[in-house]
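Listing 4. Sequential folding, example run.
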Amino acid sequence: MAEYFKLQLKITSRTLDDYGINPYAGILLLIAGFAGFSSYLFYKTEFAPYIYVFSALSLISRLNDTKRVDFLKTVFSFTHFLRVRIIENLIIAFPFILFLILRSFYIFSVGLLFLSFLMALTSFSTGYNITIPTPFSRHPFEFTVGFRNTFLIVIVAYILTVIAISVDNYNLGIFSFLLIFLTTYSYYFKSENEFFVWSFSMDAQGFLLQKIKTAILYSTILCLPVIIALSIYKIENSGLLLIFLLTGYAFLITIILAKYSAYPNEISFIHGILIALSVYFPPLLIIVIPIFFKQSVKRLYNYLI
């Protein structure tokens, strides 16, 4: 198990080298940037703890890719597999948890710790072949596969919504709403086989618009119970909820376009930086989305008519 983490460290180091970044300097810059961004975020907005947990879970969700998890299952015994998944999640969550503790947000730190464990557990099966029905079969495959891998997280989000209303904590309800959007973002982190793109009988623009429309529709279906509950709970905050909904759509579109602007490769480091900067300054999406769209059309030209 130790050898696995040593290998991951070497891969990360070589990736930084490929981008011309000294690994040690990169780590120092990452720590400094993380501390600076965290401090500014908590200074700037009261929603910082929710955004913070949201960001941590977004990073953790990238480890839940089905092929990656299946590979780990073949390499490790069940016990070691479970340990690796939990340790990986905790390594990512640790700096976020530490900063939350330093800021005295103990409930959020415990919640993030719990969700980190939960996301490790949701990626393995117990040996039973259970088919979970979904309302997403018309336009496979991201939501069909993604929902079946993350349905427990969606259930947790619904439970958090009920708790938020019962304890009169609207911010917790907003967090549960964001958690669902975070989950849908993870469905688009991996590129599909070229055959799935080629099978669409349309041009690149039509393909991208179809993907975007499907994502907005299906994400709305998942969010609808939370939207209805929060709207009934505090109708006067519907405007705020609408802003979060539109922002969620904007980032969902950005993730989809980022995926296909790098296709058939995975989302690159540069794409990740641009997305991170957009989280920090959302108006940047006005520039980022058209750039990603133009790149996506070029990337898909050879796969679509």
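-- end of first protein; second protein begins --
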Amino acid sequence: MRYIFLLNRFGSKNINSISLKIKEVCESLGINYIIEINDENINTEDILKKYQSSSNIIMAVGGDGMINRVVNSIYGTDNILGVIPFGTGNDFQKTIDETLNDGINSIDLVRINDKYFVNVACFGIDADVANNDSFIHNKLIPTSQRYTASVIYNFIRYQPRSLRIFHKDEIVERSFTTVVVANGRYYGGKYKIGTNALLNDGLMDLYMVKKMPKLLMAKTIMGMEKGLHEESPYVEKILTEHLTLIAPNPITANIDGEKIISDNFNITVLKNNMKVYKDKELVKKINA
């Protein structure tokens, strides 16, 4: 099978060295490969159009935003998602490492309105944190500290959001600090929001965090590094296949590093609707 390595020219200053490393590793392993690079003249979706009628492993070389663009480009084709982590957080890769075996795996895809994601969707302070480009993509801040810096900034300014959530036969309407829909386990580089989430169980882990005092909010956010947020009385967790989230006005959400805006989000699990290729040794060699 052919490997298509898709690199993001805007995501790394080391694009040439990464390309050379991929070429070196693939040729040493006898892999049939093509390297594609997006830029201001051609984007991810346009590049992948020429591979829609064939079966390839599309290796997203970058972060979660790159993965999301690949997922939305290859859904409905015979192409398989692969990941070479070179992003800020590499959250989806962490769940792959913890839960999937080497080889081709079938995982759940989550549809949100007319988009798809494989890892996490968040609303509220988490979305504000993830969407704050002045911190998340600030190359003056060490990569490992960018999400934390954005947390601190947005924590000071944040006001809870009034939302209505429909799931199963229940309606929950209140002010929320945040709402997170987890298919994967991690976001923000080190925060383990979906403590026991599985990529192939046909369920989303829905976390609804009530309005809380800011000191408790800080403690809860920091506790996510070790999955301690589930012990908080302000956090309600539900496993579900479908939910609808409605806001009184359009709000910004974040799905796998990408921003979307709406006042009505319909979210559904599509069980085993995406194939993911895991090759621990290949990732290790390219990242060496």
